[in-house]
């Protein structure tokens, strides 16, 4: 027989074991107790009190636990001596109540029956503590066994033999026990119900009514028993969801459900009082009075089914898979490498199937919309939604206004990657800290803030405040006195907008005014775009001996010393630059064209997918450098590139990816300037060398010299036109546009995007993102470089050839010179024409600014 549970999960009341009375003693004792405990009830039912007593107290004597003190207040059982003294005689008991098996012999026979009954084994219940759990509302004692699993008790009287009035009384009394969770005499849990199985407890028990009950009473009782099923289901759900792993939103929901359960228990207590005091109180009235509460419990049961079963398992993304490793490393660091501290990490694989946080709010919201036409259900769900969302909105306000995540159970829409730290941000100022430290959980967002723009505002508002506070040492928290507390508050979106505007204005002012973003960008322009680059010309001159070496033999420290000396040269624009100490020299042993082709082949250098740029941002690696080691060796000037150290928080705007773009543009300009210098030195050599300047009588040799000079001049014009186009018609106009837009930008994210767009536009218009144009330009520049080296070594060859030839002689050597020159001319002209065709095509389809370069290169073709 199950024991009656106290309200709020308190201990079950232990009842004393009583001697099982014989049938005759039971009837005598019961008829006397009826006069005190059930007098009013018998009057209301208009049946003899001893009849009710016989039917009722047969079960009461055998009931192993009392009703909960919060719902039933029964008189204490008399002592055995009082029961014997006040026991009525047989004459006081109606004959139709006395069982046929009862003996009518003397008192000695009666006492013999009592002794015989007392010798049988009687179940003596004991309260046993169970293993404690982390759930604050979990039961601390073992549940009582079900009546189906116990034996040694006398069966209740056959209810079919009782009049309808008596059936009504005993069933109503049983219902009061069942509705608070305890089995009755005639209403029992179904045999297949097992409370030890959590799924069955959440679904609620089925009940089995005794046979022989009046059909009209059976129908009403079945309807009332649904309320008992829902009540036990809610109790089991509250106990389960109160465990820590279910999160604060579920905890708040359980607290709200407990409020409904308290109302339910108070209603059952009121129904019992009316049953004892109101003669007109019937099961029909009972059903009508509890109908509203039954609908509430039914709605709670529907939510329990939805919340207990997560329909779709959310896939874990790459960040989630890496977060387990981050947790392991974090735990090891915190416990000095103690491996035992890892126990429990990664063991809870069931949390992915738990509805918590935003999932719970989303389910409640969807259900609220579904029952919008049912006022009681809408009122209940609104109450549950508001109460359960309070912890979530508290986390939201803490993030929006202070930039802090307080989310121990992983419920909030913003997740923190703790493995990405800021200790080395000064040495390695990549934007990984900015982009991957905080991410949105896209798989579960509350409907109220699921809009993409709203989520972006929430993420950025807290991120701005958090990063500035952690890395800048500045607390930019905003004070709020009227923040919303629930998810359905009409001020929620306005609160997000206000927090987003505050964080943006603070960080934007910090970047532009406090840390001088415009001045830092101007300095980058001087160094990487070679604007007013007198320092670079001086640097190349003093470091020419070192830069002519193969890249792998160049001393970087020596180049850095020469660069520092050049930057401090009096009269140079860089001498007064406050950021010159942040400039450093690097050598990239991968050629510019090869490097760009790798990037373009992966992503096309699209600003929406900069993963390839990040992957190659630290090239060359040893493997990449050695890959082409045997095929091609680059000179120091071809591998030269600058790097620039950016302090936080300016590194948010001038990130590693943007520095890489600056380096690509810088190497492009340096390559053009280097070829221009080579061709210029060739012109100087031709102007000074006797082999070039001396008039020759041989017409073929004279024609050769003229053709070689013309080709060199054509190449020089080509290089100069491309260099001028890249600097004056691409970089400078886009730079002016960027600086003009900084003053009108309202958000930090827009500023970051505008800076990246500026660099991507420069790369695109300089033909560094188009694979076809890039290959053609690479071949043209290689031809110019090779021809310059070839021309520089012709002076002595021409003198020796001229000495051998007469006016009309034709030597084999002159034929070889002409053949080689023909190859250079054909190669250059062919690729120049291909470049012109490509420029015209892409100017019409992609970048119209390329038409200007086409017009300039017409000079080379026509010359």
Give short descriptive properties of this protein.
two-stranded antiparallel sheet, 33 helices, mainly alpha, 863 residues, 59% helix
Folded structure, characterized:
The chain has 863 residues and is mainly alpha-helical. Helices cover 59% and strands 3% of the residues. It is built from 33 helices and six strands. Helix 32 (812-845) runs antiparallel to helix 33. The chain has helices at 23-37, 39-45, 49-62, 80-85, 107-118, 164-178, 198-203, 215-241, 247-277, 283-289, 291-308, 318-334, 358-370, 375-402, 432-436, 452-472, 492-514, 517-528, 534-542, 544-547, 556-567, 592-603, 611-615, 622-627, 636-639, 656-688, 690-693, 699-742, 748-765, 771-792, 795-804, 812-845, 850-862; strands at 187-189, 207-209, 414-416, 438-440, 583-587, 640-644.
Q: What topology does this entry show?
A:
Blueprint: H1 23-37, H2 39-45, H3 49-62, H4 80-85, H5 107-118, H6 164-178, E1 187-189, H7 198-203, E2 207-209, H8 215-241, H9 247-277, H10 283-289, H11 291-308, H12 318-334, H13 358-370, H14 375-402, E3 414-416, H15 432-436, E4 438-440, H16 452-472, H17 492-514, H18 517-528, H19 534-542, H20 544-547, H21 556-567, E5 583-587, H22 592-603, H23 611-615, H24 622-627, H25 636-639, E6 640-644, H26 656-688, H27 690-693, H28 699-742, H29 748-765, H30 771-792, H31 795-804, H32 812-845, H33 850-862
Antiparallel strand pairs: 1-2, 3-4, 5-6
Helix pairs in contact: 1-3, 6-8, 8-9, 8-11, 9-11, 9-14, 13-14, 14-16, 16-17, 19-21, 22-30, 26-28, 26-29, 26-30, 28-29, 28-30, 28-32, 28-33, 30-32, 32-33
């Amino acid at each position: 027989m199950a024991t009656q549970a106290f309200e709020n999960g308190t201990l079950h009341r232990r009842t004393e074991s009583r001697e099982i009375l014989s049938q005759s003693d039971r009837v005598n004792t019961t008829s006397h107790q009826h006069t005190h405990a059930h007098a009013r009830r018998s009057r209301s039912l208009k049946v003899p009190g001893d009849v009710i007593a016989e039917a009722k107290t047969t079960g009461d004597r055998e009931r192993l636990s009392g009703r909960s003190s919060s719902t039933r207040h029964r008189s204490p059982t008399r002592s055995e001596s009082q029961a014997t003294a006040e026991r009525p005689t047989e004459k006081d008991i109606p004959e139709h109540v006395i069982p046929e098996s009862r003996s009518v012999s003397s008192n000695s026979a009666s006492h013999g029956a009592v002794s015989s009954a007392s010798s049988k084994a009687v179940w003596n219940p004991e309260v046993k503590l169970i293993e404690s759990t982390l759930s604050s509302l979990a039961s601390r004692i073992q549940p009582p066994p079900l009546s189906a699993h116990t034996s040694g008790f006398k069966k209740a009287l056959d209810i079919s033999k009782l009049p309808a009035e008596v059936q009504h009384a005993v069933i109503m009394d049983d219902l009061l026990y069942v509705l608070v969770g305890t089995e009755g005499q005639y209403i029992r849990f179904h045999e297949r119900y097992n409370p030890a199985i959590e799924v069955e407890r959440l679904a609620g028990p089925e009940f089995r009514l005794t046979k022989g009950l009046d059909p009209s009473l059976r129908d009403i009782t079945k309807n009332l028993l649904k309320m008992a099923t829902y009540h036990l289901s809610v109790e089991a759900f509250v106990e389960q969801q109160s465990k820590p792993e279910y999160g604060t939103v579920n905890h708040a929901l359980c607290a709200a459900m407990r409020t409904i359960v308290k109302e339910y228990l108070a209603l059952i207590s009121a129904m019992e009082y009316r049953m004892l005091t109101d003669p007109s109180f019937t099961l029909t009235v009972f059903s009508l009075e509890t109908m509203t509460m039954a609908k509430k419990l039914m709605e709670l049961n529907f939510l329990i089914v939805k919340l207990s079963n997560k329909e779709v398992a959310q896939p874990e993304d790459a960040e989630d898979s890496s977060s387990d490793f981050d947790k392991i490393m974090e735990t090891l660091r915190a416990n000095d490498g103690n491996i035992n501290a890892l126990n429990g990490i990664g063991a809870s694989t069931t949390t992915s199937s738990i509805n918590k946080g935003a999932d719970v709010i989303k389910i409640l919201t969807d259900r609220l919309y579904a029952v919008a036409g049912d006022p009681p259900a809408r009122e209940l769900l609104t109450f549950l939604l508001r109460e359960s969302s309070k912890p979530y909105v508290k986390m939201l306000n803490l993030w929006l206004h202070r930039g802090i995540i307080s989310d121990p159970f992983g419920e909030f829409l913003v997740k923190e990657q703790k493995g990405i730290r800021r200790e080395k941000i000064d040495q390695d100022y990549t934007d990984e800290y900015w982009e991957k430290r905080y991410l949105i959980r896209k798989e579960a967002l509350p409907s109220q803030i699921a809009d993409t723009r709203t989520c972006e505002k929430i993420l950025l508002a807290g991120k701005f405040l958090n990063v500035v506070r952690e890395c800048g040492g500045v607390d930019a928290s905003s004070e709020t006195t009227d923040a919303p507390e629930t998810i359905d508050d009409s001020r929620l979106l306005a609160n997000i907008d206000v927090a987003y505007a505050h964080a943006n204005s603070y960080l934007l002012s910090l970047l532009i005014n406090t840390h001088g973003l415009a001045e830092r960008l101007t300095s980058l322009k001087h160094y990487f775009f070679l604007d007013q680059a007198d320092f670079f010309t001086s640097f190349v001159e003093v470091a020419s001996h070192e830069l002519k070496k193969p890249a792998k033999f160049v001393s970087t420290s020596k180049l850095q010393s020469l660069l520092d000396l050049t930057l401090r040269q009096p009269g140079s624009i860089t001498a007064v630059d406050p950021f010159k100490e942040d400039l450093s020299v690097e050598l990239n042993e991968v050629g510019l064209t090869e490097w760009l082709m790798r990037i373009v082949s992966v992503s096309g250098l699209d600003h929406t997918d900069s993963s390839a740029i990040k992957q190659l941002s630290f090239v060359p690696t040893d493997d990449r450098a050695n890959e082409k080691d045997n095929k091609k060796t680059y000179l120091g000037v071809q591998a030269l590139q600058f790097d620039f150290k950016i302090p936080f928080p300016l590194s948010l705007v001038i990130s590693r990816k943007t520095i890489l773009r600056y380096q690509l543009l810088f190497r492009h300009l340096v390559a053009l300037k280097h070829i221009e210098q080579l061709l210029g030195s060739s012109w100087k050599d031709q102007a000074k060398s006797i082999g070039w300047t001396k008039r020759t009588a041989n017409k073929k040799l004279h024609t050769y010299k003229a053709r070689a000079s013309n080709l060199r001049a054509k190449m020089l014009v080509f290089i100069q036109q491309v260099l001028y186009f890249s600097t004056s018609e691409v970089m400078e106009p886009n730079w002016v546009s960027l600086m003009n837009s900084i003053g009108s930008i309202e958000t930090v994210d827009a500023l970051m995007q505008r800076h990246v767009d500026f660099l991507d536009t420069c790369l695109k218009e300089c033909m560094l993102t188009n694979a076809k144009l890039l290959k053609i330009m690479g071949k043209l520049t290689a031809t110019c470089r090779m021809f310059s080296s070839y021309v520089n070594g012709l002076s002595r060859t021409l003198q020796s050839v001229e000495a051998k030839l007469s006016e009309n002689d034709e030597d084999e050597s002159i034929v070889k010179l002409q053949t080689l020159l023909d190859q250079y001319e054909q190669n250059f002209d062919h690729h120049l024409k291909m470049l012109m065709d490509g420029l015209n095509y892409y100017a019409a389809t992609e970048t119209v600014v390329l038409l200007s370069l086409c017009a300039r290169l017409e000079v080379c073709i026509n010359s």
